[in-house]
Amino acid sequence: MALHRLFQLSSVLRSSVSLTLRRNIGLSAVVFNRAKDLDPIQKLFLDKIRSYKTKSRASGGVVDGDASYDKNMSDEIFKLQRLYGGGDLDKFPELKFTDPIHDEAAK
């Protein structure tokens, strides 16, 4: 009986240690990967994203957007307003749901 309990405890302990080691190794791999140099393609990609972020903040909107972009954007907004009955497309619509059954019961 005691031997059986010892084997059960050993099994639980083994699985717990195994899980902890797997988690720590996974975390260590991420930390070590960030610590070492990125591969050139990843570095180029991250540099481009950071560059775009800086340009986007400086321009206050779309990067390299010229007059033709603004004209196309206003044309598309006009088409959407005409298609969906106007309104402000920059604001989320106010939705009002009614339930005739519950509304009548509340009266």
UniProtKB/TrEMBL annotation:
An example Gene Ontology CC term for this record: proton-transporting ATP synthase complex
One of the record's GO molecular function terms: proton transmembrane transporter activity
Lineage top rank: taxon: Eukaryota
GO biological process, one term: proton motive force-driven ATP synthesis
Pfam families recorded: ATP-synt_F6
The keyword Nucleotide-binding is assigned to this record: no
UniProtKB keywords: CF(0), Hydrogen ion transport, Ion transport, Membrane, Mitochondrion, Mitochondrion inner membrane, Transport
Keyword Transport set for record: yes
Compartments where located: Mitochondrion; Mitochondrion inner membrane
Record family assignment: Belongs to the eukaryotic ATPase subunit F6 family.
Function noted in UniProt: Subunit F6, of the mitochondrial membrane ATP synthase complex (F(1)F(0) ATP synthase or Complex V) that produces ATP from ADP in the presence of a proton gradient across the membrane which is generated by electron transport complexes of the respiratory chain. ATP synthase complex consist of a soluble F(1) head domain - the catalytic core - and a membrane F(1) domain - the membrane proton channel. These two domains are linked by a central stalk rotating inside the F(1) region and a stationary peripheral stalk.
Quaternary organization: Component of the ATP synthase complex composed at least of ATP5F1A/subunit alpha, ATP5F1B/subunit beta, ATP5MC1/subunit c (homooctomer), MT-ATP6/subunit a, MT-ATP8/subunit 8, ATP5ME/subunit e, ATP5MF/subunit f, ATP5MG/subunit g, ATP5MK/subunit k, ATP5MJ/subunit j, ATP5F1C/subunit gamma, ATP5F1D/subunit delta, ATP5F1E/subunit epsilon, ATP5PF/subunit F6, ATP5PB/subunit b, ATP5PD/subunit d, ATP5PO/subunit OSCP.
Name this protein carries in UniProt: ATP synthase-coupling factor 6, mitochondrial
Native source species: Pogonophryne albipinna
